[in-house]
Amino acid sequence: MPSTWVPLPTDSGYGIDNLPYGVFTTDHEPDRPRVGVAIGDFVLDAGAAAHAVGATPEVSAVLDAPSLTGLMAAGRPTWRGVRAAITTWLTDPGLRASVEPHLIPRRDVVLRLPFEPADYVDFYASEHHATNLGRIFRPGTEPLSPNWKHLPIGYHGRAGTVVVSHTPIVRPSGQRKAPTDAVPSFGPTRRLDIEAEVGFVVGAGSELGTPVGLGDFADHVFGVCLLNDWSARDIQAWEYVPLGPFLGKSFATSVSPWIVPLEALDAARVAPPARDVEPLPYLDDRAAEPWGLDLSMEVRLNGHVISRPPFASMYWTAAQQLAHMTVNGASLRPGDLFASGTVSGPEVGERGALIEITWNGENPLKLPDGSSRTYLEDGDEVTITATAPGPNGTRLGFGEVSGRIVAAR
Amino acid sequence: MPSTWVPLPTDSGYGIDNLPYGVFTTDHEPDRPRVGVAIGDFVLDAGAAAHAVGATPEVSAVLDAPSLTGLMAAGRPTWRGVRAAITTWLTDPGLRASVEPHLIPRRDVVLRLPFEPADYVDFYASEHHATNLGRIFRPGTEPLSPNWKHLPIGYHGRAGTVVVSHTPIVRPSGQRKAPTDAVPSFGPTRRLDIEAEVGFVVGAGSELGTPVGLGDFADHVFGVCLLNDWSARDIQAWEYVPLGPFLGKSFATSVSPWIVPLEALDAARVAPPARDVEPLPYLDDRAAEPWGLDLSMEVRLNGHVISRPPFASMYWTAAQQLAHMTVNGASLRPGDLFASGTVSGPEVGERGALIEITWNGENPLKLPDGSSRTYLEDGDEVTITATAPGPNGTRLGFGEVSGRIVAAR
Fold first, then answer.
1. Which among B316, B276, B336 has a CA at the least distance from the CA of B116?
2. For chain A, what is the radius of gyration of the CA atoms?
3. Residues contacting residue B370 through CB under 8 Å, at least 6 positions apart
4. Closest Cα to residue A191, out of A148, A143, A138, A230?
């Protein structure tokens, strides 16, 4: 990969090998969302740059747009072509004079929700997380349900409440019932939690009735973001039998504003953990290079690192999830979002949710500021970050997904 | 209500008191979807009629459109104004000459999906259905989960696979495992079922963080349709613990093409059944006129009536469902769809799903043509219709939602 003429801070996660996409506005034009690409400490106004360099109509059309929808829907050949073009703009010294005026300092832009979520599916792919939650929610029974190693368990969430990083999270109210209570009570959740996850954003859709096989993953998935699946554990515990989580999750799901192109993640691909159950053929990824991804995640609570979940430990890969989600003929649309499920490794310091870290509040978490937490308090801010291996020893940054809790209304 | 100058067949469900909205194309202009209103055996080209009578710009703007989104999002005062205007066009003899050229015989139009589904939520509000399914899926335990009478159980479904009536339904494949099997197998579902339901379509959205109370139901819900929540029972039974139904439902959900305005249903409002658990205040509809609806539904399999589910028997009303769905601050968007759950009365002939009618196949259903069914066979066609009381002893028709099973691919 050639080097960029854009000045890069040391260890910038936004080097020339990353080029994540987002949508931004400026204070000057708050009603004009535009497609941006992160490079160093700048955001490239991609549509303006396309015009400045005289890009092809195809490239200009998808970049000079108020959203990423056109680029996402255009499919993989276009994704490749656009990425190659932007790489040239940011590396060719002869184009610097044309392109540089369209670099905006990142601190001067407002990052918006980077795509319009169509359907949102949340999976449950960490064996450590599923085991921990089984032990907490269903003590005395086998922690993993009998189906867990045969298929990637998932459910649909609420697409309309997917929000971009830094959107305030209002503490939700609802019905809660402790096992010792005779009847449920109504009020603000007392067990507000996080789930540190990785989100996969579908670009190219598919036809109703046509499954998307394991090998077609990269033709449909546009890119990857970070995701916090905020969860109200007391609401969830009371409501979720028999039809699954609903209001305990549907109040908000935060995503990071930068979508890292799948194409940027070749160096991050790793083998998933050994599976101890023979997969059915449509989920069998042993023949092809699989889609485990070696993302290093960090979860901070009020600035203190409380966990470092290892994404490479996930039992089910995103390619298996996509194959499963469509094997019944369900169609895909541009903007479909599916999330990995909480990322938890085998160690306490690798767990992606407070319910696991504090074992449902039994072991409060001590913070360096002297306070402790079982679940989130009003005013708490949670930030999830991640990096992944890039080419030639570089690291790719995923930016962050962050949210602060505000009191129930 | 004045009478219309449009000739009405005897017992037309599409009289002047109904005026349901839809979206249609013609063979002549297959790529120009337009807003239509059903009246007698005709579809009124609403946008063209608005221009012909010189309607106000507000009315013309929402009717002369390729979708109902503008009208739906405009809110209740606009819904009332537009309905009053259309009523005048179809009743005032002085307007007949202007309006009549814009009536198209219903047989000459193609009815499209009437709205773009945003989020889709499916409830589980029939006590008879939930009890039957509990007995079948979880024999030997209490059929209703402890939460069932405290809150309307629901879950998010797949909005992207909501299809309009008469879309062919491809038999889905997936993982199935009978209790007697050691491991799951993959293949076409052997237990393809229907769920006869009523759908509620949200028009006016709401802000994130702001619940929609029981009393605000009619400010947000634009209208009502029929819905068939196709279900693959073997896939569902294997996958649904612990996070709920997923691929057993997500392959297709069919809706009727006509949205009956909520305003047309005043005469259909009835008290829901007596509840034997005290509702929490946000669900307590005893003080206000409640939203039970006396819809008479019919389910036909290959033309034979197999069930007459009574919608008035539903334990939870749509207003309670909307209040519950938003009590955690979840926002609404125009196009959000929520469904009642399978409508089943206390009698076998009132059950809205084959799993209940045949008791999971134990008691095959005999059809008048000499054949019998446990679940659906390829080529079977299921049609759900409904009527409701209108003003002055009339009946309002909901049209139908129909679908034919085609073999697995």
1. B336
2. 21
3. none
4. A230
Q: Which of the two residues, A36 and A138, has the higher pLDDT score?
A: A36
pLDDT category of residue B104 using cuts at 50, 70 and 90: very high
- The pair of structure tokens assigned to A19 is 């080029």
Q: Which helix (H) or strand (E) holds A220?
A: helix A217-220
Comparing CA positions, the residue from B96, B99, B59 lying closest to residue B81 is B59
- Cβ-Cβ contacts under 8 Å for A132 (sequence gap 6 or more): A143, A344, A351, A355, A356
Window A:4-63, CB contacts with B under 8 Å: none
Q: Do B147 and A184 touch (CB under 8 A)?
A: yes
Residue A37, phi then psi, degrees to nearest 5: -130, 130
**pLDDT value of position B287:** 87
Q: Are B316 and B121 in contact (CB under 8 A)?
A: no
Contact B160 A336 (CB under 8 A): yes
Express each pLDDT in A304-334 by its tens digit.
999 999 999 999 999 999 999 999 999 999 9
Q: Cα–Cα–Cα angle for B204, B206, B209, nearest 5°?
A: 170
Q: Tens of pLDDT along B113-122? A: 999 999 999 9
Which residues of A fall in the annotated binding site for substrate? 124, 138, 236, 240, 342
Residue B229 C-alpha, separation from nearest chain A C-alpha, in angstroms:
14
Task: Note the pLDDT tens digit of each residue in A18-69.
Answer: 999 999 999 999 999 999 999 999 999 999 999 999 999 999 999 999 999 9
Q: How far is CA A108 from CA A24, A104, A400, B368, in A?
A: 10, 7, 17, 72
CA-to-CA dists, residue B180 to B135, B183, B192, angstroms: 18, 9, 20
How many CA atoms, within 13 angstroms, populate the side-chain half-sphere of residue A41?
8
Task: Measure in Å the smallest separation between the Cα of B220 and chain A Cα atoms.
Answer: 16
Measuring CA to CA, how many Å separate B346 from each of B167, B231, B301, B326, B356? 31, 21, 20, 30, 11
Residue with tokens 């819904």: B79
Q: Structural domains in chain A? A: 21-111 (2.30.30.230), 120-406 (3.90.850.10)
Q: Is there a contact between B118 and B159 (Cβ–Cβ < 8 Å)?
A: yes
Single-letter amino acid, residue B280: L
Distances (CA, A) of B112 to B36, B68, B69, B116, B120: 10, 11, 14, 10, 18
Q: How far is residue B12's CA from residue B25's CA, in Å, rounded to a whole number?
A: 23
Q: Does the pLDDT value for residue A281 go beyond 80?
A: yes
A158/B330 Cβ within 8 A: yes
Per the prediction, chain B carries an average pLDDT of 97
Taking only the tens place, the pLDDT of each residue in B123-154 is: 999 999 999 999 998 899 999 999 999 999 99
Task: Say which residues have a Cβ less than 8 Å from residue A339's Cβ, sequence separation at least 6.
Answer: A120, A121, A122, A123, A157, A197, A198, A199, A200, A227, A229, A253
Q: Is B210 on the interface with A (CB under 8 A)?
A: yes
Rounded distance, CA A133 to CA A353, Å? 10
* Cα–Cα dist B100/B89, whole Å: 9
CB contact under 8 A, B329 and A173: yes
